[in-house]
């Protein structure tokens, strides 16, 4: 825990009596001021103090405000469901750009959908496609259906299902997308995972490993006859693991880096198929 | 029934006020007279866009950042603009382009740009407000002076009427 200098607290106090509370999670006055501005913009005045107290206890701001922007959608966020990350937003928008060039209607499936952000953004941008979201958590399914109604996107559906169930999907799909839990148990305990994530976000959606990628390839990718996939990853060894599961005579893969320069996803497509365009995602 | 109508009344009024406004010619003239130059567009080929995420780290599920700063650079002029007004990256991108567009237009044509019109308008509004304020207080001051004078006169009159008998009273006592 980094100690906050006293003069920083005093300077913050001069600007607003609520600001010192936000210094604990934000560290600098600038970012604290910004969070305060968002709290003041989005919540009624009688909730400001409570919101700042919650935030000073490291509750994620999205749970306090109840939402997170994702593309041009507004995604509702609730306890026990993972908050959408900007990296996910970034590659989903890039995926939309590529899939737009395919004129025919696509069938897309998203596993471990959480708030439903990925299917909803894909569905809202690709009007003639049909998107399915599956999650093991009932709370996530309830929330994703709420988000569907909130953003009024008709071509998306959600249902519950476990990725480790060999019969999770029966239908055929063109492309599989997933953001499975990928943080290793050791890293989850260490300081490399943000304290607000560790304390308040669901462990079910965060801690996982190679077994998820094995299940995704065997239970979903191969059984749906999909021609392309995009799985979010946290470490490069997850890329290697997933690649080794595939028949490389048929499949091509590439490692996608986000704009912060971290390895963020494995993208794969069947050689010679219409999903070849996925190689353009950079 | 009556209560029901009462609850509907404001919405009905709002509903009818829209077409009414359309036929209100003086209103239209008012809009035209204050029409601004259009929002300048930015040529996407001439700019570079960077997303600043404050701090390095593993990212992904391990970190939950809610800020999303967008930085735009216009290559021909070297103008740099950043925006983190909202939590939404898409909104920030739009806003940053608006600001950059205004700045570029102002750079090439400072006299007729939207920015200078906006600045002038703001200045005019401020000046008008100041003038109005000044007028109001001048008027108040004048009234106050007039009132004070009237009051003084009244007091003097009262005093005069009071002093007269008093002096008459003092005079005989003084002579004694």
From TrEMBL, chain A:
Domain Methyltransferase small: 95-187
Keyword S-adenosyl-L-methionine: yes
Enzyme Commission number(s) from the entry: 2.1.1.297
Record GO biological process: methylation
Gene3D superfamilies membership: Vaccinia Virus protein VP39 (3.40.50.150)
Gene Ontology molecular function terms on file: nucleic acid binding; peptide chain release factor N(5)-glutamine methyltransferase activity
Keyword Transferase: yes
Transmembrane segments: none
InterPro entries listed in its UniProt record: DNA_methylase_N6_adenine_CS (IPR002052), HemK-like (IPR004556), N5-glutamine_MTase (IPR050320), SAM-dependent_MTases_sf (IPR029063), Small_mtfrase_dom (IPR007848)
EC class name: transferase
Entry keywords, A to Z: Methyltransferase, S-adenosyl-L-methionine, Transferase
Pfam families the UniProt entry points to: MTS
Name of the protein this chain belongs to: peptide chain release factor N(5)-glutamine methyltransferase
Lineage, uppermost ranks: Eukaryota, Fungi, Dikarya, Ascomycota, Saccharomycotina
From TrEMBL, chain B:
Pfam annotation, one family: RF-1
Chain ranges passing through the membrane: none
An individual GO BP term: mitochondrial translation
InterPro entries: Mito_Transl_Release_Factor, Pep_chain_release_fac_I, Pep_chain_release_fac_I_sf
Domain of life: Eukaryota
GO cellular component: mitochondrion
Boundaries of every Prokaryotic-type class I peptide chain release factors domain copy: 41-143
GO function term, MF aspect, one: translation release factor activity
Keyword Transit peptide appears in the UniProt entry: yes
UniProt similarity note: Belongs to the prokaryotic/mitochondrial release factor family.
Protein name as it appears in the record: Prokaryotic-type class I peptide chain release factors domain-containing protein
Lineage, highest ranks first: Eukaryota, Fungi, Dikarya, Ascomycota, Saccharomycotina
């Amino acid at each position: 825990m980094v100690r906050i200098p006293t003069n920083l607290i005093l300077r913050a106090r001069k600007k607003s009596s609520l600001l010192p509370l936000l210094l604990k999670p934000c560290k600098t006055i600038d970012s604290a001021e910004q969070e305060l501005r968002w709290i003041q913009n989005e919540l009624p005045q009688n909730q400001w103090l409570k919101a700042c107290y919650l935030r000073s206890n490291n509750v994620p701001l999205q749970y306090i405000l109840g939402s997170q922007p994702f593309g041009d959608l507004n995604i509702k966020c609730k306890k026990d469901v993972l908050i959408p990350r900007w990296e996910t937003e970034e590659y989903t928008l890039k995926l939309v750009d590529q899939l737009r060039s395919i004129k025919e209607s696509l069938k897309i499936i998203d596993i471990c959908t959480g708030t439903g952000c990925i299917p909803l953004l894909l569905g809202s941008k690709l009007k003639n496609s049909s998107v399915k979201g599956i999650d093991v958590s009932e709370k996530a399914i309830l929330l994703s259906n709420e988000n569907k109604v909130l953003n009024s996107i008709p071509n998306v559906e959600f249902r519950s299902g476990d990725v480790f169930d060999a019969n999770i999907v029966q239908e055929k799909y063109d492309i599989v997308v997933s953001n499975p839990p990928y943080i290793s148990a050791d890293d989850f305990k260490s300081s490399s995972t943000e304290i607000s994530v560790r304390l308040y976000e669901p462990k079910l959606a965060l801690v996982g490993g190679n077994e998820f990628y094995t299940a995704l390839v065997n239970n979903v990718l191969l059984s749906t006859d999909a021609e392309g996939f995009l799985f979010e990853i946290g470490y490069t060894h997850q890329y290697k693991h997933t690649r080794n599961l595939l028949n490389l005579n048929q499949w091509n893969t590439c490692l996608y880096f986000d704009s912060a320069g971290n390895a963020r996803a494995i993208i794969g497509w069947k050689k010679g198929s219409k999903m070849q365009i996925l190689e353009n995602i950079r | 029934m009556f209560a029901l109508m009462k609850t509907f009344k404001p919405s009905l009024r709002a509903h009818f006020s829209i077409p009414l406004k359309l036929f209100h010619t003086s209103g239209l003239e008012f809009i035209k007279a204050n029409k601004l130059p259009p929002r300048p567009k930015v040529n996407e080929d001439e700019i570079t866009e960077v997303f600043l995420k404050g701090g390095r780290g593993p990212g992904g599920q391990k970190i939950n950042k809610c800020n999303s700063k967008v930085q735009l650079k216009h290559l021909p002029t070297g103008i740099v603009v950043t925006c983190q007004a909202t939590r939404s990256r898409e909104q920030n991108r739009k806003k940053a382009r608006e600001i950059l567009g205004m700045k570029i237009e102002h750079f090439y044509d400072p006299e007729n740009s939207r920015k200078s019109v906006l600045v002038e308008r703001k200045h005019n509004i401020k000046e008008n407000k100041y003038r109005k304020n000044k007028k109001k207080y001048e008027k108040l001051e004048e009234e106050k002076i007039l009132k004070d004078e009237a009051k003084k006169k009244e007091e003097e009159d009262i005093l005069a009427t009071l002093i007269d008998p008093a002096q008459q009273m003092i005079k005989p006592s003084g002579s004694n």
